[in-house]
Amino acid sequence: xxxxxxxxxxxxxxxxxxxxxxxxxxxxxxxxxxxxxxxxxxxxxxxxxxxxxxxxxxxxxxxxxxxxxxxxxxxxxxxxxxxxxxxxxxxxxxxxxxxxxxxxxxxxxxxxxxxxxxxxxxxxxxxxxxxxxxxxxxxxxxxxxxxxxxxxxxxxxxxxxxxxxxxxxxxxxxxxxxxxxxxxxxxxxxxxxxxxxxxxxxxxxxxxxxxxxxxxxxxxxxxxxxxxxxxxxxxxxxxxxxxxxxxxxxxxxxxxxxxxxxxxxxxxxxxxxxxxxxx
Length: 279
Description:
The chain is an all-beta fold. It has a single domain (about 45-275), classed as Jelly Rolls (Sandwich), CATH 2.60.120.560. It contains one helix and 20 strands. The strands form two sheets. Strands 1, 2, 5, 6, 8, 12, 13, 14, 16, 17, 18 and 20 form a twelve-stranded antiparallel β-sheet that branches. Strand 16 and strand 17 form a beta hairpin. It starts with 11 loop residues before the first helix and ends with a strand.
């Protein structure tokens, strides 16, 4: 496994070297906290290119570890998620205070009512409760969205209570007075819904192959590097080395990790977790 592929592109590289940093969105002056008081623990290969032993599957209307269509399979060192049925793989263990690094790419095929819509998936962290507790598909948690034009959006996949929520600095933009991450913005708290990544196109449409002018995501078929830093209620999201979203006072602060199947074929060549330990 090449866990440190392109790591130099991200400020987390400096953190791993023990250099104090703050994460700053290009073009703005306000700094946001980074886990400089923590050190990296031994890497946990959640997906090591060989098997899914760290996970179990959950598919809508089928349940746990019932995957007759092989929506989730490992082939040639790659985790292939077909998207043909909606569901997820879920870690057997819960985690808190970590760096999650995942390499993904879209592989083309789409299904069902999302056949002509933007390729869609996501990673949910801090997931708690019952499998399928949200719409019979996912456990409740905090989603880092993976979708064409919107990778890096936060979605609170909550239960309607204050047990799930995030706070982010945002500005409001069209369409729909959407909340968009901006370090110069006002801090707002949500217990449901989404906070868009900083460059999401105001002309975004739910159509296949959508790309916005500021998109950080690679072209379909090319690999992307996604890093999720989670520590003491903070979550920072990097896509291909750029900070795209940030939240604090994230609730809950720990839980299982889910990777979605949501109507689009997606592949992962690595999913690695680095525990963060207080220095």
